[in-house]
Write a structure and sequence with these properties.
The structure is a single chain. This protein is of the alpha/beta class and about 450 residues long. The protein folds into two domains: about 170 residues, Alpha-Beta Complex (Aspartate Aminotransferase, domain 1), CATH 3.90.1150; about 240 residues, Type I PLP-dependent aspartate aminotransferase-like (Major domain) (Aspartate Aminotransferase, domain 2, 3-Layer(aba) Sandwich), CATH 3.40.640.10. Helix content is about 40%, strand content about 15%. The strands form four sheets. A seven-stranded mixed beta sheet has the order 4-11-10-9-8-5-7, sandwiched between helices. The chain has a four-stranded mixed beta sheet with strand order 1-2-3-14. A hairpin with a 4-residue loop joins strand 2 and strand 3.
């Protein structure tokens, strides 16, 4: 009887939706089981209202990193609404897809052609299909997270021990993925060029796909070495910027390192919450799309390209990547200072705009759950990750850090045996989700 509307609705959802919802990272069990509000009624800037009309400041995952300009951005929404009034779909194509392709090529002058989709998983699958068709080879070397499709999860059928759970990600189950795909995709560890070189020597690799940077800086010219290897061996090099794009530069984070790929994908930030992703690439590779089959009705809808064009305009005008990088660094410094003062061991990682930390302690998950619980009481959505958005302010982050300091003080008492974390928790411990290890 005391449960809030969002918790009641989630209980219903779990009886009719496998897993309870459509996206793993938004499941309440990942944050605060039985207490997380679960559903929203509206959102604006960096604020979210639940079904009980309780207002929260979102200092957590901000739509899983999609809304760098904030929720319900007036300019983006206005452009979308105006085009919805003219119809989102018709028998003809929308002109915005051509304009967006041209704009992305302007931003990426090394590229010549573009294919659009709506999700990161789709963009990854499209890029792999095109790259395999262009190279004439099936085998792929990967580093990082690249979605849920069969081609990627097939790594966990490999019998060599270097599967995803060992050094890229934990928690990806390949049930339902054909075992016949084993040993077609081979993972390598970031900054381990020798490991990649060995994979290329031992297998007929046609494609290298990787995130440019996630938790670590490239060392010893790593990205340039990968580029040179791909060029020498006539391998298609793909940079997956679905997550990192437009967070440190106006475009791909690879611009910082002056290394250009043969193909790149952009998503998440591209439409500020509207579904749009893009695959950009060199003409001699992208034209291989004509020699295979990729087609989907809603890749031709109008909302995504419209949102992307306006989002790109605003990001360029406001230099949003500079603002969110500043905010991320601001919070990371606060985390580090509080941890030192309270003598609580934490480890920071991630690029500034998508910063994270972990408690280096056996009760890490319990501490994380307690943190989320206490922040929620104070009107903040908070986990151990922070996805920065331009509506966040120093005032908001200062309030956040005051609460953070209070939480760490309590956690320190638990570490020292003066309190028990089990008695402080008011519900179940959060689940352990996907872990990015490099």
């Amino acid at each position: 009887m005391n449960k809030k509307l969002g918790q009641k609705l989630y209980k219903r959802a779990k009886t009719i939706i496998p897993g309870g919802n459509m996206f793993l990272s938004k499941r309440p069990e990942m944050h605060l089981p039985d207490q997380w509000p679960s559903y929203y009624s509206k959102a604006k800037g960096c604020y979210v209202w639940d079904l009980d009309d309780v207002k929260y400041i979102d200092t957590s995952i901000m739509g899983i990193g999609t809304n760098t300009l904030g929720y319900c951005n007036k300019e983006v929404d206005k452009a979308v609404i105006e085009n919805i009034k003219r119809s989102n779909l018709s028998t003809f194509n929308c002109p915005e897809e051509v304009k967006l392709a041209e704009r992305l090529i302007e931003i990426n002058p090394w590229a010549d052609m573009v294919r659009l989709a709506r999700t990161g998983g789709e963009a990854n699958a499209i890029s792999i299909r095109i790259a395999r068709a262009a190279s004439g080879k099936d085998k792929v070397a990967v580093c990082g997270y690249h979605g849920w499709h069969d081609w990627y999860l097939s790594v966990n059928h490999n019998n060599v021990g270097d599967d995803l759970s060992n050094h890229l990600l934990k928690g990806l189950d390949p049930n339902g993925v054909p075992k016949s795909l084993q040993n077609t995709v081979f993972p390598f560890t970031y900054n381990n060029f020798e490991e990649l070189s060995q994979i290329v020597r031992d297998n007929d690799i046609g494609v290298i796909k990787m995130e440019v940077k996630r938790n670590f800086e490239p060392e010893d010219g790593f990205l340039k070495k990968v580029r040179d290897l791909a060029t020498k061996k006539n391998i298609v090099l793909i940079f997956d910027e679905c997550t990192s794009g437009f967070r440190e530069t106006f475009g791909g984070i690879f611009k910082k390192y002056q290394v250009e790929p043969d193909m790149a994908m952009f998503g998440k930030t591209l439409g500020n919450g509207y579904a749009i992703t893009a695959v950009v690439g060199k003409r001699n590779i992208m034209e291989a799309a004509q020699n295979t089959f990729m087609s989907s009705t809603f890749w031709s809808e109008r909302i995504g390209p419209t949102a992307a064009l306006k989002t790109l305009e605003i990001m360029e005008r406001e230099k949003s990547w500079e603002r969110i990088t500043y905010l991320g660094n601001y919070l990371k410094e606060g985390w580090e200072k509080s941890a030192q003062v309270n003598k609580v061991p934490i480890k920071l990682f991630g690029i500034p705009a998508i910063s994270s930390f972990i408690f280096e302690h056996k009760d890490s998950l319990k501490f994380k759950t307690y943190l989320t619980q206490e922040f929620l009481k104070k009107g903040f959505l908070a986990t151990t990750s922070f996805y920065a958005a331009t509506p966040h302010s120093e005032e908001i982050l200062n309030k956040y850090l005051q609460i953070f300091d209070e939480v760490l003080f309590k956690i320190k008492r638990c570490i020292d045996g003066m309190d028990s974390i089990d008695t402080l928790l008011e519900g179940p411990v959060a689940h352990d989700g996907l872990k990015r290890l490099n």
